[in-house]
Amino acid sequence: MRAALRANMLNMLELNNVVKSFFTPSPIEVLRDVSMKVDKGQWVSLMGPSGSGKSTLLSLIAALDTPTSGKVIINQQDIAELSEEERANFRAKQLGFIFQSFRLIPHLNIIENVLLPSRILDQDPSSSRERAKSLLEEVGLKDRMTHTPGQLSGGEQQRVAIARAFLTKPTLLLADEPTGNLDEDNSETVLNMLEKLKTTENCTMVVVSHDPEVAKRADREFVLSRGVLNEVSTSK
Q1: Across 11-68, where does the E strand assignment appear?
Q2: Contact 163, 139 (CB under 8 A)
Q3: Which pTM does this prediction carry?
Q4: Can you name the residues that pair with 27 across neighbouring β-strands?
Q5: What are φ and ψ of residue 185, in 5° steps?
Q6: Sign of dihedral through CA atoms 106, 121, 202, 39?
Q7: Position 181 pLDDT exceeds 60
Q8: In a 10 Å sphere around its CB, with 0-12 CB exposed, 13-18 middle and 19+ buried, how is residue 119 labelled?
Q9: Which of 77, 79, 100, 192 is the most buried (most CB within 10 A)?
């Protein structure tokens, strides 16, 4: 009984029989009875071909949408029970995001880009700046803080995006093709950074990718095909 309770408390993310359909006007079932439980601190990779439902699933986990049926539970909170305002607040405080296209603001310098989430949450500027500096040092950009994104390589810009995603100490990090625009060397660097910060920040990560190297780094690998999710057995 105690072991079962402890296991339940460790779950950071639960998908319980999630179905997502779109009506255009006839129903199209994009996700079919998807279930998954992810423990705190785990790195999960989500693989699958284009059109398999990966982006839809990530949107549900990100509290940007709600399932047609089933439940998405993050840190013991059923997302569907939250209002739009509460979901926005939940995303800002508990989730971190990394995108393939970096999404940095061109006219802001690097540390200003990293600080954006703290400004949205109206957090203490002094402590936020110190954390931003520390994270930029972690990702090897201590000497580039006053540069703008256009003065950095693609790999460096993605490392800025990683620092920004970790600024508010998210409990769950969602990454959508974080190495998709990078060459092999920069991809390796970015994955090393994610691996390091996952450990030091004790963060749970769900990483959507076509890159097999992401699956190798992950604690668990899932494949989504035609809306059906299956876990791949590994030696880990």
Answers
A1: 11-23, 27-39, 43-47
A2: yes
A3: 0.88
A4: 23
A5: -65, -45
A6: negative
A7: yes
A8: exposed
A9: 79
Give one word for 16, left, alpha or beta, with left for phi > 0 and alpha for psi -120 to 50: beta
Q: CA–CA separation, 175 vs 165, rounded Å?
A: 9
Asked if pLDDT for residue 228 goes beyond 60, the answer is yes
Please, which residues have CB within 8 angstroms of residue 193's CB and are 6 or more apart in sequence? Answer: 138, 139, 140, 159, 162
CATH number of 40-52+82-232, picked from 3.20.20.70, 3.40.50.1980, 3.40.47.10, 3.40.50.300: 3.40.50.300
What is the token pair recorded at 40? 């705190």
Q: Determine the average pLDDT of the residues in 76-99.
A: 91
- Report d(CA 109, CA 26) in Å as an integer: 47
Residue 73: burial class (beta carbons within 10 Å; 0-12, 13-18, 19+): middle
Give the relative orientation of helices 125-138 and 184-201 as an angle to the nearest 10 degrees: 130
